[in-house]
Design goal:
It is built from 11 helices and 23 strands. With 493 residues, it is α+β, with helices and mostly antiparallel strands.
């Protein structure tokens, strides 16, 4: 019986009989130019050089995204670490900026104001369990979690309505009894930021402010009660740095946070992104030389993106007025950075690169109660503000601020008070600046004070950029309905 030849075998026999040798197959190498160099494939498979380029780019991109994604978390945790490292504080201790202006400019810290008598602390619910926060009257304060997300206001915009009261912070997943008599706050993270801004007429300054807060602002374990060894520390004239790292140590801070906080403080995607970079709960973070290099490159790229997004952003609705250069820090009046059902990630990055403290009282319309901010980086010609020139800013009469107003100068790299040799790089209500005959107030920015304008002048540094924030504490209706609008900053020479 004759055997059948299958079609596949017949085909192979035909090829063999034809003398078509393997060396005569067509070259299937493919090459493509790309931003990371030439990519090469043989027979559809990537070459080793292409594999190396692809994985380097993947790890670099993930590092870049992690730098931007976790900025709210590293920013607030950097404050906790500064309190520990620079000020000798522990959870529940209170640091106070004891002067309105003097002493703050020596610290690197995002967009501090020069008028409030700040008191700052952090709670560690992992160590202490439920924590009581006793709040002074007539303050603007917050509790933000370890992601710098708003949990509650304290004081004038809070549930105590400015009368003072006791708040109780509950740890993640807490199932114990909750006693009566507290404003209860459920916290998704163990470490949480507690900060109040007091008014100088209430707090006093210097030692008086420390005594004031020692009597009125206390943070302690519910179970153990008030501590006898609690510290009230002056933060003034301390050369600390409360900002997140901007080098490869950024990821060391991230690892420390991941080892501290519960997994529930992160989404599975966030934990997955960190795991891809070698950061995982319960495991040692030990990047090799290659990974350290890529992590550093990711920070470098992420920093450039953050700066572009802050100072030349492309976000709809960032300009407060249609004919002036002032910009919002909280876009859309949202403290949660939501736009419909979507997280507006570039709006979130813009804010957290520039500033700290998240609360509706800084974003939403709260006439006479909260605070509002007008940021400006450019002059009337749309050019960045530089310290070589002389500029003037005129504020219309009847500045709409119930509590106080201020114009404060910062450096665009540090986003901190401009270290220009002055105690207070700002002009505010408290300075009682000279007022023009028509009721307007003109403020000058220059390396040297224009003659006769010293009281209304902030010193700038040649060769260095600068930016301003106009603050309105207790903003009034003319700000919101825009019948009051500050002039653009004009370059005089």
């Amino acid at each position: 019986m004759k055997k059948k030849t299958t079609p596949i075998i017949a085909c192979l026999l035909l090829i063999a009989g034809s003398g078509f040798a393997q060396d005569n197959y067509p070259d299937t190498t493919a090459k493509a130019d790309s931003p990371i160099g030439t990519l090469e494939y043989k027979g559809g498979f990537p070459t080793q050089a292409t594999i190396d380029k692809a994985f380097d780019q993947l790890d670099r991109q993930r590092a870049t995204q992690a730098y931007l994604e976790f900025m709210p978390m590293t920013s607030v945790n950097a404050i906790f670490e500064s309190h520990i490292r620079d000020n000798g504080m522990a959870a529940g201790d209170v640091g106070v900026y004891t002067e309105q202006g003097a002493g703050k400019a020596s610290t690197i810290g995002l967009t501090y104001n020069t008028e409030s008598i700040y008191a700052s602390a952090f709670a560690d619910l992992k160590k202490d369990g439920p924590v009581v926060v006793e709040v002074p009257p007539n303050v603007l304060g917050i509790v933000d979690d370890g992601w710098q997300r708003w949990l509650t206001d304290l004081g004038n915009a809070g549930r105590d309505k400015g009368k003072g009261g006791k708040y109780l912070l509950l740890p993640p997943g807490y199932e114990g009894e909750v006693p009566d008599g507290y404003f209860v706050v459920e916290c998704p993270t163990y470490r949480n930021w507690i900060m109040v801004r007091g008014f100088v007429q209430d707090t006093g300054t210097g030692e008086d402010s420390l005594k004031y807060y020692a009597k009125t602002f206390r943070i302690y374990s519910l179970e153990k009660g008030p501590r006898k060894d609690v510290k009230y520390v002056s933060l003034s004239h301390v050369k600390g740095d409360t900002t997140h790292p901007r080098d490869v140590s950024y990821f060391d801070l991230l690892d420390q946070i991941v080892q501290t906080e519960p997994a529930s403080a992160f989404t599975p995607y966030e934990l997955g992104l960190l795991k891809a970079l070698g950061i995982e709960q319960g495991k040692k973070f030990a990047p090799d030389a290659r990974m350290k290099k890529l992590l550093a490159e990711g920070v470098q790229i992420g920093e450039a993106i953050a700066k572009a997004n802050a100072y030349a952003n492309r976000l709809d609705g960032v300009r407060i007025y249609d004919d002036r250069k002032y910009e919002y820090l909280f876009l859309g009046g949202r403290h949660d950075f939501m736009s419909g059902d979507a997280l507006w990630i570039d709006a979130r990055t813009l804010y957290h690169y520039e500033a700290i403290v998240v609360t509706p009282a800084m974003a939403a319309k709260m006439v006479g109660v909260g605070s509002q901010y007008l940021a400006c980086y450019r002059d009337s010609n749309d050019e960045f503000l530089m310290g070589d020139h002389v500029y003037q800013l005129t504020l219309p009469k009847n500045i709409p601020a119930k509590n106080f107003w201020s114009v404060t100068v910062y450096h665009p790299d540090t986003r901190s008070l401009l270290q220009n040799g002055q105690d207070k790089p700002s002009v505010s209500t408290y300075d009682k600046p000279d007022v023009n005959p028509d009721g307007t107030t003109t403020i000058w920015f220059a390396p040297e004070a224009p003659e006769g304008k010293e009281k209304n002048w902030v010193k700038t540094i040649p060769g260095e950029g600068w930016e301003i924030l106009i603050r309105l504490y207790g903003p009034l209706e003319p700000f919101f309905d825009q019948t009051w609008r500050p002039d653009d900053i004009k370059k005089v020479k």
